[in-house]
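Revision sheet: structure tokens.
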Amino acid sequence: MNEGEGKERGERKRFETPKPVAVGDEVDVTIESVGGQGDGIAKVSGFVVFVKGAKKGDRVRIRITDVKRTYAVGEKAGEAAPAAEKEEPAEEPEEEEGEGKAAEEQEAEAEESGSN
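Predicted:
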């Protein structure tokens, strides 16, 4: 090997993966658990974020203050936007019992009588 090439003993080549957050970003998170130091733990696209003073179950807006190789640190920046509720399809007016069947039966009878 030429001088200056190769790895020194014990050195590993690290591949830096893109992080889903950067210093200064503000994101809404739900605190999933609490770490040993008492910081709340949230995840942003699977990336761990520690949030000082947050409790499990809190939904907060955080500002990222530091990003490391395997985790980030954030601070509370306010209340999170309300969680989007599952949108249910628009309800059609409820039919009284028997009306829906009667209409279907009438259509079926009309088709049968038209083919005779």
